[in-house]
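Possible regression after last week's pipeline update?

I re-ran a chain I had predicted before the update to compare outputs. Posting the input and the new output here so someone can diff against the archived version. Not blocking, just want to make sure nothing changed silently.
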Amino acid sequence: MKKSKKNSSVNPAGITRRKFLKGFGITSIGIAAGSEGLLGTIQASCAPAQGTVAGPDAQQISLRVNGKNHRALAEPRTTLVEVLRDQLHLTGTKTGCERGACGACTVILNGKTQTSCMTLAMDAVGAEIETIEGLESNGKYHSLQEAFIEHDAMQCGFCTPGMVMSCKNLLDHNSQPTLEDVKLATSGNLCRCGTYQNVFDAVMKTVKQG
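New output (post-update):
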């Protein structure tokens, strides 16, 4: 029986069991202390091709939010929602589950909905960020916000900003969505009060108004 050829693409670093044992100084006699050789090989194979190291201290960054540039201080671990709320005082974006599950912190990042609790502030540098505060223009609410008010598409209001941003992004890309499109667009936004039908009605009213 012929032996099958090994697939080299599975192990791009070329690390074999023998190299693994030798790298950690593991022999038939015992375990030695040295391990830098193997770890260096692994780290080199996993390291990004290029980029700069940030941190561990906070660094000054620039974020473009709602068409304006803002300066902020952020550690590598600082999330976008933390900067928006705590430094830029844009508190319309809510902090809910902090694990990307509830959608309360939804913003629009480069034309796509994004949970800002799962986005590092440093990763948002250079991006166009839209928050709920950016929908108001010259003291007037966005037509979608007006529709939410008209159809009572909120109760406690905690999920509302994220829900509005998801619906707004849908309309930005699809001016004539179906009800199923709206349901899909808001599938990542949880409403404990159960106002989903009113949200759907508000969006479809906005579609009819053009």
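Follow-up from reviewer: compared with the archived run. The chain has three domains: 13-46, 59-135, 143-209. Marking as no regression found.
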